[in-house]
């Protein structure tokens, strides 16, 4: 198990008590066969789902190499699952993360961009903050000339309850540095990310 797949050190008994209370509150019998182990399962699930709370983006981005490449690097279609902090149900979709290395040509490992998405996705989140946290962490830790992050996601809180609109996609973007200041650069990235639609 690598450092970044390690579950969060949560208070298991406390989550178990709370889940048992929720089951009682909805009129269920927490002692029936199918539910008896549910509080413990949920505690383990939360330890995974919120593992990002115990992870440091600086560590993910500590791999930096110098390959003298100063053009755009883009990893698109990174599958991501996060948890809506309002309803504690998932929102899920794709993240696209691009950057232009600084004048020293410093890049990070491609997988680190996907790991960075997970560090912030595996926390109670809203999509806008998730998007900007990824962008800001890249700016802070690899000092690139610019960063673009686009996330497209479906929110189960809009599908299984509430407004009940399955299929509605929320698209958020965060641009920093040259992607913010130079429209053609941003446009090039957006067309690579979204493709012809
Ligand atoms: N901006 C933003 N809103 C979100 C996100 N995830 C969920 N929401 C919204 O958070 C809002 C919470 O609204 P409230 O009126 O406080 O809660 P609610 O009564 O459960 O709202 P409904 O979902 O409309 O039933 C809802 O409109 C959700 O769609 C997100 O990532 N970003
Ligand atoms: Zn929600």
From TrEMBL:
HAMAP family: FolE (MF_00223). InterPro entries: GTP-CH-I_C/QueF (IPR043133), GTP-CH-I_N (IPR043134), GTP_CycHdrlase_I (IPR001474), GTP_CycHdrlase_I_CS (IPR018234), GTP_CycHdrlase_I_dom (IPR020602). Belongs to the GTP cyclohydrolase I family. GO terms for molecular function: GTP binding; GTP cyclohydrolase I activity; zinc ion binding. One of its GO terms (biological process) is one-carbon metabolic process. Keywords: GTP-binding, Hydrolase, Metal-binding, Nucleotide-binding, One-carbon metabolism, Zinc. NCBIfam families: folE (TIGR00063), PRK09347.1-2 (NF006825), PRK09347.1-3 (NF006826). Its EC number is 3.5.4.16. Homopolymer. SUPFAM superfamilies: Tetrahydrobiopterin biosynthesis enzymes-like. Residues 15-193 form the GTP cyclohydrolase I domain. This is GTP cyclohydrolase 1. One of its GO terms (cellular component) is cytoplasm. CDD domains: GTP_cyclohydro1. It catalyses: GTP + H2O = 7,8-dihydroneopterin 3'-triphosphate + formate + H(+). Zn(2+) binds at residues 84, 87, 157. The keyword GTP-binding applies. It is an enzyme of class 3 (hydrolase).
């Amino acid at each position: 198990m690598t450092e970044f797949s390690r579950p969060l050190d949560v208070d298991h008994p406390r989550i178990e008590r709370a889940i048992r209370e929720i089951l009682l509150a909805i009129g269920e019998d927490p002692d029936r066969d199918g539910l008896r182990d549910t509080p413990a399962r949920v505690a383990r699930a939360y330890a995974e789902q919120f593992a990002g709370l115990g992870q440091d983006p600086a560590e993910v981005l500590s791999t930096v190499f110098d390959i003298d490449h100063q053009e755009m690097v883009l990893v698109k279609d990174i599958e991501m699952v996060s948890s809506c902090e309002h309803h504690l149900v998932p929102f899920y979709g794709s993240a696209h993360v691009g950057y232009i290395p600084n004048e020293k040509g410093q890049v990070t490992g491609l997988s680190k961009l996907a790991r960075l998405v997970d560090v912030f996705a595996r926390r109670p989140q809203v999509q806008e903050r998730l998007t900007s946290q990824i962008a800001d962490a890249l700016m802070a830790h690899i000092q690139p000339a610019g960063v673009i992050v686009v996330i497209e996601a479906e929110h189960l809180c809009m599908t299984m309850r509430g407004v009940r609109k399955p299929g509605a996609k929320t698209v958020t973007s965060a641009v920093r540095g040259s992607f913010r200041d130079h429209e053609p650069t941003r446009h090039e990235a957006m067309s690579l990310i979204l493709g012809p639609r």
